[in-house]
Amino acid sequence: MQSRRDVQRQRSRISGKKLVVRTLMFLLVVILVTWGTFALATQPMRSAQHQAIRLAKRYAGLKTTNGFYTYNRDHTYYTVSGENRQGQAVLVIVPQKGGKLRVVKQSNGLTKQEAIAKVRSENKVKKVLRAAPGVFNDHVVWEVSYRNANGSLCYDLLNFTSGKYVQRINNL
C-alpha cells in the first residue's frame, strides 16, 4: 500500500508534467501565431518579387538573379539584378503598375557600392539604411536613404549613369 506521502509525490509529479506540457503548448501556439503573422505580412512583397523575377527572365533575358530592390517615390518599381544570356551584369526595372521594363547594363552606371560611397563622401552619414535603383523623372537613379550625424532621415537620388545628384531630401 502506498503511503499518503507517496500519493502526494505522485500527484505533484503529475501536476508538474501537466504544467510543462501546458507551457510547451502555449509556447508552440505563440510561435505559430508569430510565424503566421510574419508570413501574412511579407506575402505581398514575396509575390511581387517572384513576379518581377519571372518577368525579368521572360522579357529581358535574365539568366541568373543576385538581388532584388523596391523603390517607392512617385511610382513603385521592382528591380532585379543579375546576368543576362550574354553574361552581362544588368538591372531589370519592373514598374509595379505595368508598363515597359527597363534593362540597363550595370557597367554603364554606378554600382550600389559606388552610389553609397559617393553619398558617404559628401555627407555626414551615420548609417546607410538602404540603396535601391528606380526611375525618377524618366531617368534611372539610385536612391540612397540614410541617417545623418544628427540622426535625421535623408534621401539622396543619384543619376545612375552620371552619378550626379538629382534630388536631395535632408533632415526629415
Automatic annotation (TrEMBL):
Lineage: Bacteria, Bacillati, Bacillota, Bacilli, Lactobacillales
Highest taxon above the source species: Bacteria
Pfam families (alphabetical): TseB
Ranges in a coiled coil: none
Residue ranges constituting the Cell wall elongation regulator TseB-like domain according to the UniProt record: 51-95
Residue intervals passing through the bilayer: 20-41
Record-given protein name: DUF5590 domain-containing protein
Keyword Transit peptide applies: no
Record-linked Gene3D superfamilies: 3.10.450.40
Keywords: Membrane, Transmembrane, Transmembrane helix
